[in-house]
Amino acid sequence: MSTDSSASGEQPVETTDPGSVDADGAPFLQQPDDGSGHLELAAELRRLRGLVAGSTFEDVHDAVATVRELSDHLEKVGTRVNPFTYETWGVPEHIGANPAIGSRNPISPPLEPVVFPDGTVRVELTLGIEYQGPPGCVHGGIVALLFDEMLGLANAAAGSVGMTADLRVTYKSPTPLLQPLRIEARQIRTEGRKIWTEATLHTGDTLCARTEGLFIEPRGIRDEDRDKPIEG
Ligand SMILES: CCCCCCCC(=O)SCCNC(=O)CCNC(=O)[C@H](O)C(C)(C)COP(=O)(O)OP(=O)(O)OC[C@H]1O[C@@H](n2cnc3c(N)ncnc32)[C@H](O)[C@@H]1OP(=O)(O)O
């Protein structure tokens, strides 16, 4: 998504594309473009989402009609995904619909994680007004969503998979909108089916929030699914 300039000309005014890949990190959980235009559609809707949530209008009835027409069109030309019939998790229909990382989901920022040799997973992102809680700050529930996702990805990077059983978030300092954010997650230890994973969220050198999660590996997990993240 494009980054615009505020009146001061310095700050972005909307959620931006994720940060570029760090030289030391490898892209993790890439979601390939199938060439259908689906990802471009989602990106355009992300732009729309920010405009709708973050603007005031005198009269947008024309836009209502246009968007209704678009929805009717997509209903006609699309094949609906059934979330109860995936062969396994991690297939594009599954990951793509995820509200934190899904490239097909206009709700997602989306995250574009990189993984480091020590198993740390990192994302860099900037969130716009559609993620606002307190004025100028990211909603605490959004922080928890992003943390949950990142912990799951760190588990996947470590070759394990677990359902979130306990997620504790400590909010240390307001998480600003429209400022570059960095989330880093890593698995700490495992014991039987229990997995402990931690993450931090910074803006610059300021720690905004940290989290500790306990994940439980589902019973009967297949070996080939261990490095695939469970979606929240
Ligand atoms: C793409 C990136 C992925 C993002 C990741 C997102 C992950 C998610 O959001 S998952 C969705 C949210 N989470 C859920 O819906 C989970 C709902 N809960 C459940 O399904 C179950 O309670 C589940 C699977 C966690 C555990 O159930 P079950 O497998 O029966 O575990 P159970 O046998 O009772 O317990 C196993 C061990 O874990 C412990 N345990 C289980 N739950 C907890 C808990 N909440 N707190 C502390 N310990 C717990 C038990 O005490 C037991 O310990 P021990 O072996 O020492 O006796």
Automatic annotation (TrEMBL):
Gene3D superfamilies listed in its UniProt record: Hotdog Thioesterase
Q: What positions belong to coiled-coil segments? A: none
Q: Which top EC class is named for this enzyme in its record?
A: hydrolase
- According to its UniProt record, the EC number is 3.1.2.2
Q: Which SUPFAM superfamilies match?
A: Thioesterase/thiol ester dehydrase-isomerase (SSF54637)
Provide ranges: composition bias, Polar residues. 1-18
**Which reactions does this protein catalyse?**
hexadecanoyl-CoA + H2O = hexadecanoate + CoA + H(+); (5Z,8Z,11Z,14Z)-eicosatetraenoyl-CoA + H2O = (5Z,8Z,11Z,14Z)-eicosatetraenoate + CoA + H(+); decanoyl-CoA + H2O = decanoate + CoA + H(+); octanoyl-CoA + H2O = octanoate + CoA + H(+)
| CDD domains in the cross-refs | PaaI_thioesterase
Q: What is the membrane topology noted in the UniProt record heading this document?
A: Peripheral membrane protein
Pfam family membership, one: 4HBT
| Localization of this protein | Cell projection, Ruffle membrane; Cytoplasm; Membrane
From the UniProt entry, list the residue stretches annotated as the region Disordered: 1-36
Coarse class of the protein's main subcellular location: membrane
Where is each Thioesterase domain found? 136-206
Entry-linked InterPro entries: HotDog_dom_sf (IPR029069), THEM4/THEM5_acyl-CoA_thioest (IPR052365), Thioestr_dom (IPR006683)
Keyword list (alphabetical) reads: Apoptosis, Cell membrane, Cell projection, Cytoplasm, Fatty acid metabolism, Hydrolase, Lipid metabolism, Membrane, Transit peptide
- What family is reported? Belongs to the THEM4/THEM5 thioesterase family.
Question: Could you tell me what this protein is called?
Answer: Acyl-coenzyme A thioesterase THEM4
Tell me which species this is from: Dietzia aerolata
Upper taxonomic classification of the species? Bacteria, Bacillati, Actinomycetota, Actinomycetes, Mycobacteriales
